[in-house]
Amino acid sequence: MIVFQGVSKIYPNGVKALQGVNLHISPGEFVFIVGPTGAGKSTLLRMIYRDEVPTRGKVFVGSQDVTRLPSRQIPYLRRRIGVVFQDFKLLPHKTAWENVAFALHVTGAPEEEIPRRVGRALAVVGLLDKALSFPHQLSGGEQQRVSIARALVHEPPILLADEPTGNLDPATSWEIIQLLAAINRRGTTVVVTTHNKIIVDMLRKRVVELSEGMVVRDQQHGLYAQEG
Amino acid sequence: MIVFQGVSKIYPNGVKALQGVNLHISPGEFVFIVGPTGAGKSTLLRMIYRDEVPTRGKVFVGSQDVTRLPSRQIPYLRRRIGVVFQDFKLLPHKTAWENVAFALHVTGAPEEEIPRRVGRALAVVGLLDKALSFPHQLSGGEQQRVSIARALVHEPPILLADEPTGNLDPATSWEIIQLLAAINRRGTTVVVTTHNKIIVDMLRKRVVELSEGMVVRDQQHGLYAQEG
Amino acid sequence: MRKKARHLWRTFWYFCQEAWLGLLRNGMMSVAAVLTGMVALLILGSSLLLQANLAYLADIVESQVEIVAYLRDGTDARERTSLLRRVERIPHVREVRFVSKEVALARLQESFKNRVVLRDLLDTNPLPDSLEITVHDPARIPEVVQEVRRVPGVEEVTYGRQVIDRLLALTRTVRFTSALGVALFAGVAMVIIVNTIHLTILARRQEIEIMKLVGATNWFIRWPFLLEGLLEGFLAAIPVIAFLSLAYIVGVYRLATVIPFLPLLEPPAILPRVALVLVTTGAGMGIGGSLISLHRFFHPKEPRARDPLGRPRRKPIHPLGRLRVR
Amino acid sequence: MRKKARHLWRTFWYFCQEAWLGLLRNGMMSVAAVLTGMVALLILGSSLLLQANLAYLADIVESQVEIVAYLRDGTDARERTSLLRRVERIPHVREVRFVSKEVALARLQESFKNRVVLRDLLDTNPLPDSLEITVHDPARIPEVVQEVRRVPGVEEVTYGRQVIDRLLALTRTVRFTSALGVALFAGVAMVIIVNTIHLTILARRQEIEIMKLVGATNWFIRWPFLLEGLLEGFLAAIPVIAFLSLAYIVGVYRLATVIPFLPLLEPPAILPRVALVLVTTGAGMGIGGSLISLHRFFHPKEPRARDPLGRPRRKPIHPLGRLRVR
Ligand SMILES: Nc1ncnc2c1ncn2[C@@H]1O[C@H](COP(=O)(O)OP(=O)(O)OP(=O)(O)O)[C@@H](O)[C@H]1O
Ligand SMILES: Nc1ncnc2c1ncn2[C@@H]1O[C@H](COP(=O)(O)OP(=O)(O)OP(=O)(O)O)[C@@H](O)[C@H]1O
Ligand SMILES: [Mg+2]
Ligand SMILES: [Mg+2]
Fold it and tell me: What secondary structure does DSSP assign to A72-91, as a single string?
C-alpha cells in the first residue's frame, strides 16, 4: 500500500515540483503516471523510495511513514522496493548474473542463498539463458530485463519504473511493459511513469496524470490523454 | 552532401556496429534513421562528426573524406555540423543566451559578432523571449530548443539529432520535430535518429532503417516500419 | 553462530579487497599520499626520539644538580676540615663531600673506560681539589652559591642550573619546530589522502549509486574507503618505524662509543612507544582523510541558490559528481 | 591588426580567469601541490647555493695550491740559502719563496683585520719559518712533495690537495643527497599537480564535452589547465626565492663577520641564477603535471579487451570519466 497525503515538494531553488498530491495505491495495483515533462513524475517516485522528502505532507509505504524514517532505516525500506530506470544502470564489467547477485552481496544476504534467488529473478524475466552475457552483449530490451531482475531479487512487494522504455524501440518497449504486467499479475504493486502513448492506450490500466505538480486525472482503465 | 561508402565499424570489443553501409544524403534533405536498439544508428551519426572512425570504408562530408581528416582539422569540421542530443547537454549555470554564446566564445568567434549571431539562432527556435532563463526555468521542449539554437549558431549546413525526443512527452516531441522540419525548409540538411513511430509516420520523410548494422530499407516518404 | 562468523569474515575480506583495488587504481596518487605521510611521520618520529632523550638528559642532570666548589691549589688537610665545617653550616646545605684531585682524575679516567689512558697523556694532574655540595631544595642553589663564594680557600663555584635551562630551552625549540614540520606535512598528506579517496569514490560512483538503490547500508559502502585510507596510513608508518628503529639502534651504539658519558635512552625503552605513536598517527591521518572525503561526498555542501550575479540558479550537479540517490 | 590583438588579449584573459577558478575550486588540493612544490624547490635552492659556494671555495683553493715546507726551528741564513737552491732544483718546481716567521705572523694578523690583536695574545711567535713552493703542473705535486721531504732542514710538508679533495667529495655528497630530496619532493609535487588538474578537468567534464562538440580546438581547451599548473609552479617558486634570498644575504653577512677569511659568493653573483633555476623548475613541474594530466584525459589507455577471466568485455567507461567525443 502506497499513500500520499497532501504531499508538496518545493526544491531548494524554488521550483514547485509537487503541490498537494493525494494518492492511494493498493497492493497489487498497476498504475501509469503520465504528464508533460517537468510535471513531477520522477519526483513522485523518488518520494516513495525516500530519495527525496516532501516539503509538506506524508508518504506511507505499507504502514510506515517514510518521511519520518530515520536515515539508518532507509536501506531496509529500499530492499522492499525495486526500482527500474530508463538507462538500466547496469555495471558494464559484470555479467547479467553478477549484476543481479551484486544487489544481494551488498545487502549482506547469506552467501548460500544467493544462487537460488538470482536464478529465480532471472527466470521471472526469462533471461536464464543469457545469465553469463555482459551488458554489451545484450540488446537494449535484454539489458532492461536484467535491471528488472535486479529490482526483483529482494522479492519486493513494490516495483517502481521511471520511464523504463524511454530509450527503447516500440517492439522492445512493448515487450518490457508486458513483462511488468506479468510481474504485476503475480501480486507485485507496479508503478510506471511513461511518455509512451501507444502503450498506455493499449494496456488500459489505472492512469494518474500530473500537470504542474498536481494530480489532474486519476482514472481506472484510462488512456494516455483525456478522452473526448 | 554526406556520403557513406561501404562503411563498417567493429568496436575494439568485437561488436560489429555497422556493416557495409552505403548512404547518400543530398544537401537540404531530411532523413530519419530508424531501427531497433543496437542497430548502429548512433554509431552512424558519430562517424559524420568524426567522433568515431570507420574500420573500413569512407565517409564524405561535402567533398572532404572525414576518415582521413588530420585531428587538428576536426574542430573546423564540427563547426560545419550542428549536433543535438537527447539529453540537451546544456550548462546549468548559464542562461539560454549564454549557453548559445558559449559555442561562439570557445571557437574564438569575434566578440562583436556574437550578440547578433546568438540573437538570430534564438530567433530561429522562437526562444528570444526566454533568452535570460536558466535551463531549469525552461520546459523540456524549451531546453531542447536551446540546444538546437546552439547547434545552429555556427549556421552549419548540416544538423544531426540523436533521439532528440527520447525524453519528451508526445506534444513536446511533435513541437521539436516541427522545428527541425522548419529548419530543414530553410536549406539545412537534417538527419534525425528516433524510436518515435508516431512522428515518423506523420512526417513521411525519407526513412533509412538499420538492422544489425546494415541498411535494410531506404525509402522516400517512408513510415517507421515497413509497409504491408 | 559459526555461519554468522563465516559471513562476517567474508564481508570483511570483501572490504579489504575493495580497499586494495582502490589503492592500486589510484596508483601514483596513492604513492604520493604514502610518501608525504612518510615525511610527516619521519619528522614526528625523529623529533619524538630527540625530545625523549633531551628530557631524559635534563632529568638526569637535574637529579644530579649539585654545587661544585673548586679549592685553591695547595690547601692542606687542616684548612680543608675547617672549610668543610663552614660550608656545612651554610643554611639549606644537605651534604658536603670532599673530592681530592686524585679522585677527580680517577673518575674522569673511568668515564673514558679504557679507550684513553689519561696517565699516559698527562705528566701532572691538572684537576683541582673540590667540594661537592648538595642542597635540600634546588631552588635555594643561587643563595647557597653566594655563600660558598664568600668562604676563603674557594676559588670557583659552578652548578648545573644553566645546563638544565639550556637543555630545556633546546627541548622546547625541538618540540616547536618539529611540531610545525609535522603539522605541515601531516596536513599535506591528509589533503592528498582525502583526494585519493575522492578519486576512488568517483571511479566507483556508478557502483555506489546502485548499491544505495538496492538497499546497501551506508557503512557497508563506506568501509572499503576507510580501509583504503587506513592502509595508506599504515604503509606510511611501517617503513618509517623500521628506518627509525634501525637508525636509533645504530646511532645509540655509535654515540655511546664516541661520547661515553652521554646518557641515552635504551632502544627497548623508547622505540615501542614511538612506534605506537607513529602507527596511531598514520592510521589517524588515513582514517581522517577518508572520513573527510566520505563526508564531502555523502553530504555535499548545499550550493548557493543564486549565481554570482544574483540570479536564481538550479541546484547544480556537484562539480565532483554527487550522487542523486541519498 | 589592432582588432586581432585585442581579440588575442581577450582570449588570453579568459584563459587566465579559468585557470584561477580551477585553482580555487580545488582549494586544499592546490595548497598541497604548492606546499610540496615549495619543499622540493627549497631543497633544490639551498643545495644550489651550497654547491656553488663549495665549488667556488674549491676553485680558489685549487688556484692557490702550493706546497708549504716548514723549516726546522733556528735555521740560519746560510743554511736557508742552500736549502732554497736545493728545492729550486727539484724537477717541476716553478718558484720558491721564503716566508719568515715574522711575515707569517703579520699575514695571520692581517686576515683578522683589527678584530683580534695577536701581539696582545701571544708572548712569542709560535709560527715557524717556511718555504712556499709553486709547481708548473698541480698533478706533479705528490712527486715534488716526496722530494721536498727528503731535503734536510725541512720539518714538515703540507699541501692543499687533501683540502680540495675533501671539498670536492663534500660537493658530490651535497649534490647527490639533495638531488635525491629534490627528485622525491618534485615527484610528489608533480603527482599532486597531475591530480589537481585532473580534478579540475573532471569538474569541467561537461563543459569540455560541449566545447569539443561545438568545435573548440584542443589547444583552446587545454590552455586554462596548462596555466593552472604553471600558476601552481610559480606560487611554489616565488616564496622560496624570496626566503632563500633573504636567508642567503643575512647568512653571508653573518658568516663574513664570524669567519672572515671564508670566501663566499656575493649575493648578486649567485641569487639571480638560482632564482632563474627555481622559477624554471617550478614552471616545469606545473606544466609537466598539467601535460601528463591532459594526456591521460585526452588519450586514455585502451582498456584490455578481455576481463581477468578472459571473457570479452565492453570498452568500459574510463574510471575517471573519459570523454566520448574525441
Ligand atoms: N534536484 C532538483 N533540484 C531542483 N529542481 C528539480 C530537481 N529535480 C527536479 N527538479 C525540477 O522539478 C520539476 C519536476 O521534475 P521531475 O523530474 O519530477 O519531472 P518529470 O515529470 O519527471 O519530468 P520528465 O518527464 O522530463 O522526466 C522540474 O521543473 C525540474 O526542473
Ligand atoms: N564505444 C563503444 N564500444 C563498444 N561497443 C559499442 C560502443 N558504442 C556502441 N557499441 C555497440 O555497438 C552497437 C551499436 O550501438 P549504437 O549505439 O550505434 O546503437 P543505436 O542504434 O544507437 O542503439 P540505441 O537505439 O539503443 O541508441 C551496440 O551493440 C553497442 O553495444
Ligand atoms: Mg522524469
Ligand atoms: Mg543510440
Answer: GGHHHHHTTEEEEETT----
